[in-house]
Amino acid sequence: MASVLLIVNSILKTMGGEFDTSNLSLCTTKWVYEDKNSDIKALLELLDFKIDAFYADFDFSLSNHPALKLYDEGEAKEGVGAGGALMYGLLNGLSKADITKQVESFLG
User: Fold this and answer.
1) Which of 3, 7, 34, 82 is the most buried (most CB within 10 A)?
2) To 5 degrees, how large is the angle CA 99–CA 101–CA 103?
3) Each residue's pLDDT tens digit in the chain (108 positions)?
């Protein structure tokens, strides 16, 4: 999503537009935030506008599923929207256990 914001930034520069970010935040996952090969902060500092950024403090430590353990080991990566979805769930009262159980149910 940081890349999308950089594209928006470039379009705004080219077209002379403005972007109200007062109701917009970038939400990522702990896995991306802690990834030594990822530097979301540096990407966001390239923007001509300010945006708040957060990460969902979530992991699969409550799971025994081998595929989910790969996330915590840094091998698996999530797709766009995982950070926002996790943040939404956590802010709306879902516990780490609730989310883990639901994700596990999709895996069978």
Assistant:
1) 82
2) 70
3) 888 999 999 999 999 988 899 999 999 999 998 888 888 889 999 999 999 999 999 999 999 999 999 999 988 888 778 999 999 999 999 999 999 999 999 997
Q: Work out the number of other CB atoms within 10 angstroms of the CB of residue 53.
A: 18
Q: Give the pTM.
A: 0.80
Q: Nearest Cα to 21, choosing from 9, 39, 29?
A: 9
Measured distance between the N- and C-terminal CA atoms of the chain, rounded to whole angstroms: 30
Name the 3-class secondary structure at 107. Answer: helix
Question: Which alpha helices (DSSP H) does 16-65 contain, by range?
Answer: 30-34, 40-45
Q: What are phi and psi of 89, to 5 degrees?
A: -60, -45
| DSSP code per residue over 58-85 | ---TT---HHHHHHHTT-----TTHHHH
